């Protein structure tokens, strides 16, 4: 049976969650808030992976699993595939989504060009941090999926230019 | 008839095991299921022998015994489904579809946000749906 | 065709090697035979296999047979192609000749004749007997051989070779081998080709009625045999496989009822490895092959080839599946076979396979995983035979000795009963044996499990034997269908198999002769059902008839033999599984071994094995199975007196799922633990009860403590014990989150604690901790002599309800100790001065800084010159915090509030030896303490003349109170502070003579400057004059109508007295009373919150009506005017432009001698010199010149001098100028002008001008 959730609901939920954890529960310790959000994502991914890997042969290696995430999983969750996958064949994978759905409505107020280069400028870094808060959830999801597929890993995301977003997966040897 | 179905977690820990015999001798079925893990491990660990069925979830007949048949099914998430039947001639296609339904039921169960992964499945709905699936499959 | 079978068989056995025929033309064979024989087998023969690929066969044996030999003669040609494999593969023509003519005329034609038959593969061996020394002979031999070659060899094939018997040439033998090989290869090819064509023809007409399997079989097997003879085992094996395939198809072909076989003696012993076990003729009857024998025969041939190919692994793997499928076949025909034929056959088959393969298998020759696979198969074979063997044992009544473990139950209860058409019935003369069995049955008491665990024993039988046996007996007689049906209910009635349609439900009873299982079952009465013992005995007899193998019979003859065999099989299975992938199987079987060891009281062995089993189950969380084994382990440990192990087993049992044991059993576990704990433990190792006792901090925020405070830490402890359990001690370690390296120190709970099942809250007394935050560490404790520890931190719930993401969370700190900080503040309530020498309230504000002062004690220690009026209580009241310097307003509010605010925040405390104990209400609010004190000072205040400004020193009225506050739970917190209080007189008095009336009356103005922050009301004032002064007309009091005179805080008032000089008094007469005393009777209206106030007692009696007035005394000095001046000092007027701040001016005084001092008493040695001194208020003036010095003044009357001093005014306004005094001259003799102190006006500085700043002198 297919159950669909209105995308707007998901967006709102995500926003609320971030607001809740980084704004109220752990207002003064963002790293803790990040941890919790990531953990929630982990559980979601863990459970989604059960459903979306049904009806498909087992993956013989890491690359297959990653490809599954890029193609099927991503289009299940975001109705589009990852646009670009890179790997160093030593356990590091970079998944790039040129228009990451959950960032499509996020915008950072433009700051002078010269500032954009160096992240140390307060305004820039604050904006970046605010956005990155929204990325712990998808990171957690990816980690959840992979660990449920038996691939322990660490996932981080970076946003070079919105709404492009790339997730970096480092498989734990 | 199917006498026992089981779900075994990726650490070979029992997540759900249900026998369908009148007598309270479930232990022996526990034993059968537990030992059949040996076969699954063997098949998965040296793919050479399991050959073509390497990546298919359905592992087929695990035991060629005289008395009962044990079938196995291994998901991508290293969760194992095991089914013990006393029917003599069983068509693989039936078993496949059985496992597919079983798997679906399992996925629904673990998608419950209140289910803690790696813990025993206690959902009553899951139990009922499994019961129905089992009842709907009496091979031959 | 079938009649050839016998012949075929014999021929096959007779010849086993490739045959080469020798055509001995010139009787050479006897001489060369030896040489030939010793040069076979052929070292390296290149043959082509069935798929036309060259194969290298090594050491191919060849048999040389003379063509004249009987074996090669006398063959009917039509047989040939049947038995072609025995026909020669090569024909060697042996010739010799030394004379060319002889060769041409005689030998050559013969040879031509011989070799013309092209069927055969032939070549010529030319033997030369010529001795090398005899070169004549050799020469001719050479010629002849050359001719021979010319005649018989063609360019495409070389058919000649030459053997020099005396010659050294060795390469002949290679030549020979090549030639023979070539011949064999060609022949082989031709024959294989032929056979294949034949076979193809046959298999094309497979499904025609005329088709005959026998022909097919003979062709196939001949082909196989050819391959085998040529050592092409692979191909031979393939032939047999195809043969088997084809056979099974024909067998399974419906229609013709074929005989199965298996009724011959010793058929119960599997012959699946003995090809020659039965002659084929016996297997085949009117061209139908008996399945029972033939399939075994085929397998035997296959396994023989496999062994030759050195593939024992394949033998066992094929063997296992063969056994399984063959057993199925046996099941189909079970009803006609002897009783338990199938079981017996399977046992023997497995054992045979095991023996054969084990002897042929050598580790390491194959890939390791193949090895593992092999051992797994061995294990399978062992356990299969084990199962069957157990079944037999059960049937004859050894069931009581079979452990009812899940394993055995699984195999036995899912294995259907044997289904003979007729169940064996009791032989007539068996009554004694029956009695025996009866006894054993009665004796057999099922061992009660340890801890009195009650379990329904697992079944070892698919359905009740009694019923099955009787029903099958009765099934001959018509009727009792209901029993038939109720037998079909439920799975473990074995209906799973009965339901399968293949079971021939309508098998007619076979003739008695065949089923020797039930001799004379007609004699036995049908109506009476057999008793169990009878069934056992009957089965035993039947088995004796079935089993031909004496060893097997022996193993079943007695319980002991049965057990040894059972143990062997189990061990075999276990060992082999251990060497394979299937560890679990191995371990579980170890458990079975353990059970037997246990029965034979080899408890240490049993314990070891049980350990392994438990570890297996526990490791993967199969609690149900664990619950089955663990009690056994525990029992072993108990018997072995391994207390530590036993304990931990009990704890493990307790920590299993609650549902697995009844509460009674769990209580038994606990009581065991407690008993041992209180008994003598030789070496008490700490017991880990993490699974059983878990702990967590209470929900809610962590306990907050200030630095140095002790506290009470209450912790939730979950007990998994079924009953209350008494812990003789319980302690808990706290670990500082900052530094985890140190273990943190342990908190001991005070007394023995009793843990209820489930949640307990335990409070620990917490000594002062270092600042930082702490988490729970380990709980350790003692039950009797048993030390236990638990490091399982349960998150506020039972141990099992943990979050799978728990590693994501930091463990919640349970205790936070804050850094040292101010907890309380003590301050003086009033900054303004209080009345000295009067009982006054001194206020102390106690301000707790969010810290409770419950039961605090204040030590009050007054400094010198201050004493506490302990006649009055000390008042304490709530202090209204208001913004800083609104002293007055504070006063009002507090004054008003104190009455109407609830009484509990104002009360009177008693001071007991310098200590005050705070009361409850004051613990949190900030409060003010009013302490009645009296500052003492003896000295009388003196009024100052207005000439010299008043200088009161601050320290004069300063008094200190040392305060020490002890507070905190155990008065561990100390706060010390010394507060200063300022005391003073009500007034500061200054006097001046306001006016000099004629008649010598002086108006003395007394100015009162209030020093307190309170209204002073002067009721009365009088003056006690010093000598030389008398009051004016009045009584020395000012006009009373002015009184009462109110002096408000800080303001001044003046009282005027009229006094006059005492005429009568002569100068020079000395004065008694040096100074006069000003008395002021006044009362004070003040508020203690602001400063000075009514003395305490007056304050006590609040009524104003009878007021007790205070009296203030102050001394003043009056000075008589100058009567007969001899010197006069005149202050010369200042320059007209006046004085300016910072501007130098010269002050001048003129000193004039009015009369000479002759005769006057006040004279000293230098009459013409006068000492002067200028004194000025250093705050107002800076004096530049000499302040003190001598000026010369001649003695005669009227001599004068001017003293001028340079000085700078420092402040603007009306100030007193500097004064010139003559210290050496009595004041009475100096008249000054102006007479009293006067003021001059100093203008402020010009803006531009800079000026000096005052310097302290």
Describe this structure in words.
- The complex is a heterotrimer of chains A (173), B (140) and C (1257).
- By secondary structure, chain A is an alpha+beta fold.
- Chain A has one domain: Muramoyl-pentapeptide Carboxypeptidase, domain 2.
- Helices cover 51% and strands 13% of the residues of chain A.
- Chain A has a 4-stranded antiparallel sheet, with helices on one face.
- The longest helix of chain A has 23 residues, at 30-52.
- Chain A is globular.
- In chain A, 31% of the residues are buried.
- The termini of chain B are close together.
- Chain B has a 5-stranded antiparallel sheet with strand order 2-1-5-4-3, with helices on both faces.
- The longest helix of chain B is centred in the N-terminal third of the chain and has 20 residues, at 26-45.
- Chain B is an alpha+beta fold.
- Chain B is globular, with a radius of gyration of 14 Å.
- The longest helix of chain C has 34 residues, at 171-204.
- Chain C contains 28 helices and 52 strands.
- In chain C, α6 packs antiparallel against α7 (213-229), α10 (291-308) runs antiparallel to α11 (312-332) and α12 (341-360) runs antiparallel to α13 (368-395).
- Mean pLDDT of chain C is 78; it is low at 475-525, 795-810, 883-903, 1101-1106, 1159-1163 and 1248-1257.
- In chain C, 32% of the residues lie in helices and 24% in strands.
- Chains in contact: A-B, A-C, B-C.
- Chain B binds chain C through residues 1, 3, 11-14, 20-32, 34-35, 37-39, 41-42, 45-46, 48-49, 64-68, 86-89, 116-119, 140, and chain C through 320-321, 324, 327-328, 369, 373, 376, 406-407, 409-411, 413-416, 456, 458-459, 490-492, 496-497, 500, 502, 581-585, 588, 617, 620-622, 624-625, 628, 803-804.
- Chain B: One of its GO terms (biological process) is endoplasmic reticulum to Golgi vesicle-mediated transport.
- Chain B: This is Trafficking protein particle complex subunit 2-like protein.
- Chain B: Pfam families: Sedlin_N.
- Chain B: InterPro entries: Longin-like_dom_sf, Sedlin, TRAPPC2L.
């Amino acid at each position: 049976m297919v159950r669909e959730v209105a995308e707007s609901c998901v967006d709102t939920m995500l926003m609320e969650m971030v607001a809740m954890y980084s704004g109220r529960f752990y207002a003064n310790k963002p790293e803790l808030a990040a941890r919790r959000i990531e953990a929630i994502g982990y559980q979601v991914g863990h459970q989604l992976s059960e459903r979306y890997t049904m009806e498909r042969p087992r993956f013989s290696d890491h690359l297959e699993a990653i490809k599954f995430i890029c193609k099927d999983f991503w289009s299940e969750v975001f109705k589009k595939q990852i646009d670009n996958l890179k790997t160093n064949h030593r356990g590091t994978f970079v998944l790039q989504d040129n228009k990451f759905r959950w960032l499509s409505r996020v915008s950072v107020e433009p700051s002078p060009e010269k500032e954009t280069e160096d992240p140390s400028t307060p305004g820039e870094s604050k904006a970046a941090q605010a956005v990155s808060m929204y990325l712990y959830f998808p990171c957690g999801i990816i980690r959840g999926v992979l660990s449920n597929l038996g691939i322990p890993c660490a996932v981080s995301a970076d946003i070079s230019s919105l709404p492009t977003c790339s997730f970096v997966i480092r498989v734990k040897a | 008839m199917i006498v026992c179905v089981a779900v075994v977690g990726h650490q070979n820990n029992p997540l759900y095991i249900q026998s369908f015999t009148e007598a309270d001798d479930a232990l022996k079925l526990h034993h059968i299921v537990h030992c059949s893990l040996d076969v699954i491990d063997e098949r998965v660990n040296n793919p050479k022998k399991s050959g073509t069925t390497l990546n298919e979830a359905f592992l087929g007949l695990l035991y060629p015994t005289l008395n009962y048949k044990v079938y196995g099914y291994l998901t991508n998430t290293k969760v194992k489904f095991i089914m013990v039947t006393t029917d003599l001639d069983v068509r693989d296609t039936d078993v496949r579809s059985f496992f597919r339904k079983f798997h679906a039921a399992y996925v629904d169960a673990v998608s419950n946000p209140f289910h803690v992964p790696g813990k025993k499945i206690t959902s009553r709905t899951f139990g009922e749906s499994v019961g129905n699936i089992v009842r709907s499959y009496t091979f031959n | 065709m079938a009649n050839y079978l016998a012949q075929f068989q014999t021929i096959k056995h007779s010849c086993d090697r490739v045959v080469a025929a020798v055509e001995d033309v010139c009787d050479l064979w006897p001489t060369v035979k030896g040489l030939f024989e010793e040069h076979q087998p052929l070292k390296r023969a290149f043959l082509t296999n069935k798929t036309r690929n060259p194969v290298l066969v090594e050491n191919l044996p060849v048999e040389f047979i003379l063509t004249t030999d009987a074996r090669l003669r006398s063959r009917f040609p039509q047989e040939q192609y049947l038995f072609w494999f025995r026909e020669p593969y090569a024909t060697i023509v042996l010739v010799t000749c030394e004379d060319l003519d002889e060769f041409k005329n005689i030998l050559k034609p013969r040879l031509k004749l011989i070799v013309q038959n092209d069927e055969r593969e032939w070549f010529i061996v030319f033997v030369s007997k010529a001795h090398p020394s005899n070169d004549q002979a050799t020469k001719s031999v050479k010629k002849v051989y050359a001719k021979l070659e010319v005649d018989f060899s063609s360019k495409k094939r070389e058919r000649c070779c030459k053997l020099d018997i005396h010659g050294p040439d060795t390469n002949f033998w290679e030549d020979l081998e090549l030639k023979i090989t070539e011949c064999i290869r060609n022949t082989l090819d031709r024959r294989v080709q032929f056979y294949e064509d034949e076979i193809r023809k046959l298999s094309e007409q497979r499904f025609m009625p005329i088709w005959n399997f026998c022909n097919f079989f003979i062709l196939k097997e001949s082909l196989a045999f050819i391959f085998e003879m040529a050592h092409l085992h692979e191909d031979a094996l393939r032939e047999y496989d195809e043969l088997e395939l084809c056979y099974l198809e024909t067998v399974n072909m419906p229609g013709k009822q074929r005989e199965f076989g298996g009724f011959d003696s010793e058929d119960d012993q599997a012959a699946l490895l003995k090809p020659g076990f039965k002659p084929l003729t016996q297997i085949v009857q009117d061209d139908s092959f008996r399945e029972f024998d033939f399939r075994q025969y085929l397998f035997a041939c296959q396994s023989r080839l496999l062994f030759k190919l050195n593939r024992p692994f394949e033998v066992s793997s094929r063997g296992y599946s063969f056994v399984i499928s063959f057993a199925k076949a046996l099941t189909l025909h079970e009803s006609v076979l002897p009783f338990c034929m199938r079981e017996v056959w399977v046992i023997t088959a497995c054992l045979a396979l095991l023996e054969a393969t084990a002897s042929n298998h050598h580790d390491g020759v194959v890939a390791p995983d193949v090895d593992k696979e092999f051992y797994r198969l061995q294990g399978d074979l062992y356990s299969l035979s084990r199962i069957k063997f157990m079944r037999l044992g059960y049937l004859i009544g050894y069931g009581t000795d079979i452990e009812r473990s899940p394993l055995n139950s699984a195999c036995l209860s899912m294995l259907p009963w044997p289904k003979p058409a007729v169940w064996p019935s009791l032989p007539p003369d068996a009554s004694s044996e029956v009695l025996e069995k009866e006894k054993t049955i009665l004796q057999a008491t099922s061992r009660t499990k340890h801890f009195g665990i009650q379990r329904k024993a697992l079944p070892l039988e698919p359905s009740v034997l009694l019923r099955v046996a009787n029903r099958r007996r009765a099934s001959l007689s018509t009727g009792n269908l209901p029993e038939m049906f109720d037998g079909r209910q439920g799975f473990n009635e074995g209906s799973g198999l009965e339901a399968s349609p293949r079971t021939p439900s309508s098998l007619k009873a076979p003739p008695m002769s065949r089923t020797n299982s039930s001799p004379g079952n007609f004699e036995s009465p049908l109506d009476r059902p057999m008793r169990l013992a009878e069934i056992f005995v009957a089965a035993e007899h039947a088995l004796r008839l079935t089993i031909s193998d004496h060893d097997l019979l022996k193993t079943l003859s007695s319980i002991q033999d049965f057990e040894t065999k059972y143990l062997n099989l189990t061990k075999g299975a276990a060992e082999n599984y251990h060497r394979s992938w299937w560890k679990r199987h191995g371990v579980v079987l170890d458990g079975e071994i353990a059970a037997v060891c246990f029965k034979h009281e080899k408890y240490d062995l049993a314990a070891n094995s049980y350990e392994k089993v438990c570890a297996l189950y526990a490791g993967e969380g199969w609690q149900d199975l664990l619950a089955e084994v663990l009690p056994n382990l525990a029992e072993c440990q108990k018997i072995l007196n391994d207390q530590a192990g036993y304990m931990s087993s009990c704890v493990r049992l307790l920590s299993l799922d609650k549902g697995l044991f009844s509460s009674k059993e769990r209580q038994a576990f606990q009581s065991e633990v407690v008993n041992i704990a209180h008994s003598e433990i030789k070496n008490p190792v700490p017991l880990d009860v993490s699974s059983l006792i878990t702990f967590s901090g209470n929900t809610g925020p962590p306990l907050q403590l200030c630095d140095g405070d002790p506290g009470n830490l209450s912790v939730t402890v979950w007990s998994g014990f079924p009953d209350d359990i008494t812990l003789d001690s319980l302690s808990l370690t706290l670990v500082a989150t900052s530094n985890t390296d140190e273990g943190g120190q342990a908190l001991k709970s005070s007394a023995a604690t009793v843990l209820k099942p489930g949640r307990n809250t335990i409070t620990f007394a917490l000594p002062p901790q270092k600042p930082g935050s702490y988490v729970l560490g380990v709980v350790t404790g003692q039950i009797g002599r048993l030390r236990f520890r638990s490091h399982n931190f349960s998150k506020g719930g039972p141990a099992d309800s943990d979050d799978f993401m728990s590693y994501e969370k930091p463990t919640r700190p349970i205790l936070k100790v804050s850094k040292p900080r101010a907890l309380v503040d003590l301050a003086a309530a009033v900054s303004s001065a209080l009345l000295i020498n009067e009982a006054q309230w001194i206020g102390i504000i106690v301000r707790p800084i969010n810290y409770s002062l419950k039961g605090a004690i204040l030590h009050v220690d007054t400094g010198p010159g201050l004493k506490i009026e302990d006649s009055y209580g000390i008042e304490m009241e709530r202090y209204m915090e208001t913004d800083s310097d609104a002293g007055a307003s504070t006063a009002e509010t507090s004054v008003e509030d104190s009455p109407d605010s609830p009484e509990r925040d104002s009360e009177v405390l008693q001071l007991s030896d310098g200590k005050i104990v705070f009361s409850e209400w004051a613990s949190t609010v900030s409060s003010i303490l009013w302490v009645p004190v009296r500052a003492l000072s003896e000295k009388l205040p003196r009024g100052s003349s207005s000439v010299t400004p008043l200088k009161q020193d601050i320290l004069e009225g300063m008094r200190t109170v040392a305060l020490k506050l002890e507070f905190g739970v155990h008065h561990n917190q100390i706060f010390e502070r010394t507060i200063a209080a300022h005391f003073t007189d009500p007034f500061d008095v200054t006097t001046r003579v306001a006016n000099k009336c004629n008649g010598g009356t002086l108006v003395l103005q007394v100015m009162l400057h209030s020093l307190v922050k309170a209204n002073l009301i002067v009721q009365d004032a009088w003056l006690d004059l010093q000598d030389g002064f008398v009051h004016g007309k009045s009584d020395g009091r000012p006009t009373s109508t002015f009184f009462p005179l109110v002096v408000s805080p800080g303001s001044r008032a003046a009282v005027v007295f009229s006094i006059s000089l005492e005429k009568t008094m002569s100068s020079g007469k000395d004065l008694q009373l040096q100074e006069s005393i000003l008395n002021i009777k006044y009362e004070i209206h003040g508020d203690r919150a602001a400063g000075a106030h009514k003395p305490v007692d007056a304050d006590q009696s609040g009524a104003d009506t009878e007021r007790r007035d205070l009296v203030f005394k102050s001394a003043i000095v009056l000075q008589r005017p100058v009567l007969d001046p001899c010197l006069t000092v005149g202050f010369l007027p200042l320059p007209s432009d006046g004085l300016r701040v910072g501007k130098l001016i010269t002050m001048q005084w003129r000193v004039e001698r009015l009369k000479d001092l002759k005769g006057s008493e006040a004279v000293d040695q230098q009459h013409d010199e006068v000492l002067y001194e200028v004194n000025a208020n250093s705050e107002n003036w800076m004096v530049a010149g000499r302040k003190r010095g001598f000026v010369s003044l001649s003695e005669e009357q009227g001599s004068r001098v001017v003293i001028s001093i340079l000085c700078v005014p420092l402040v603007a306004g009306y100030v007193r100028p500097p004064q010139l005094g003559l210290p050496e001259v009595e004041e009475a003799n100096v008249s000054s002008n102006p007479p009293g102190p006067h003021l001059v006006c100093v203008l402020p500085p010009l803006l531009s001008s800079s000026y000096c700043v005052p310097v302290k002198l």
